[in-house]
Amino acid sequence: GDVFTYDPGFTSTAACESTITFIDGDKGELLHRGYPIEQLAEKSHFLEVCYLLLYGELPTAAQMDDFEMRVTRHTMVHEQMHNFFRGFRRDAHPMATMVGVVGAMSAFYHDSTDIADPWQREVAAIRMIAKLPTIAAMAYKYSIGQPFVYPRNDLDYASNFLRMCFAVPAEEYEVDPILSRAMDRIMMLHADHEQNASTSTVRLAGSSGANPFACIAAGIACLWGPAHGGANQACLEMLREIGTVDRIPEFIARAKDKDDPFRLMGFGHRVYKNFDPRAKVMKQSADEVLGLMGIEDNPTLQVAKELERIALEDDYFISKKLYPNVDFYSGIILDAMGFPTSMFTPIFALSRTVGWISQWKEMISDPAQKIGRPRQLYIGETRRDYTEVEER
Ligand code: CMC
């Protein structure tokens, strides 16, 4: 019979060729289209990174203006979608709402679901980059019982998102430029990360010819798990549960205990066996933002820093090469901005949308593309005959 490679978790299988993102896990290096993430986080901004991921080059000023215009033109969702939101339980987790609403986009935007048409693919990409912040903010507003806030297209991408989340009717809302820069940086740091579980899910769903909205909804569903994007929520909840620096050793001991399923959230990575370069930028950003807000004595940040210090000196973490990952410090910044933990993963999702859609577009135009169809090693019963119920 056929011989297959058994590779659970795809630890040694490359499922595609890609020109988008490069990771060197041993060095802790992350490049988008060749540009180091540290340089992008410092000098670029989220929409420029979107352009880079989608089209392969940094935009000229004119290309950037045009792209920004194309994105902002699509920030509003169809008014009828408001009714769709109202079908959810009022206290639904925003991720649950997002999986549903993004999946339903294919029912609202028929004119960009024909994957054979490059123009429709482009419109679908722009629509999702433009609308995901609106949808995430609406999911949040719905979960707290506040009215939806329409997008404001004179604001930059991050500021518009913050405003849609935090503005309330009849009250002034000025976006704090410190928060908006921090939000933009969080978005940049999450924009793409090659063939992680959710991106592979998007590619697998797309390989059957499914429409792009359905594929991104599949990616959002996959991202939700605590081993993946859900780790940012789980991490802040863990840091809060630890609460004070003196309780850290107890939690370190639990993480090391083979019989205890507890893991240090925000630690470890399938590919990075060194510092996650995104975590380094995120830590610096947390320091900066909390400093500028005058809350650098935030107890959660203190616990996080001390936990990192202790873990990095511990033999268990050293020998298994477990370092802080992108989710370790992001929650602290989002918390300081006023987001509840339930919004952390939706923010990851809206930021990763550009990565998913860039990878989906790359796959669709790859001549080597085929439907994804892993094989298995069957270890069940061999052929046997049906028995009548009285005989069982
Ligand atoms: N705390 C304690 N032990 C750990 C941890 C951790 N966070 N992560 C891995 N280990 C141990 C694990 O028990 C295993 O030990 P042994 O070899 O003795 O069985 C060893 O390290 C290797 O772990 P693994 O589960 O085989 O590694 P993996 O590549 O399958 O998993 C991971 C990677 C990220 C799922 C895992 O490190 C983890 O669960 N981390 C916590 C959740 C988290 O922070 N996820 C976010 C990942 S980065 C952003 C994203 O993808 O969203």
Q: Round the Cα radius of gyration to an integer and report it.
A: 22 Å
Amount of beta strand: under 5%
The largest sheet is: 3 strands, antiparallel
Counting DSSP E segments of at least 2 residues, the number of strands comes to 3
Keywords: Acyltransferase, Transferase, Tricarboxylic acid cycle
Catalytic activity: oxaloacetate + acetyl-CoA + H2O = citrate + CoA + H(+)
GO molecular function, one term: citrate synthase activity
Family: Belongs to the citrate synthase family.
Give structural notes.
- With 392 residues, this protein is an all-alpha fold.
- It has 2 domains: 13-225 and 344-364, Citrate Synthase, domain 1 (Orthogonal Bundle), CATH 1.10.580; 231-337, Cytochrome P450-Terp, domain 2 (Cytochrome p450-Terp, domain 2).
- The chain has helices at 37-43, 46-55, 61-72, 81-86, 94-108, 118-143, 157-166, 177-190, 197-206, 212-223, 231-242, 248-256, 277-292, 299-312, 315-319, 327-337, 344-364; strands at residues 21-24, 29-32, 35-36.
- α2 packs parallel to α17, α5 packs antiparallel against α6 (118-143) and α9 runs antiparallel to α10 (212-223).
- The radius of gyration is 22 Å and the shape is globular.
- Carboxymethyl coenzyme *A binds next to loops.
- InterPro entries: Citrate_synth-like_lrg_a-sub, Citrate_synth-like_sm_a-sub, Citrate_synthase, Citrate_synthase_AS, Citrate_synthase_bac-typ, Citrate_synthase_sf, Citrate_synthase_typ-I.
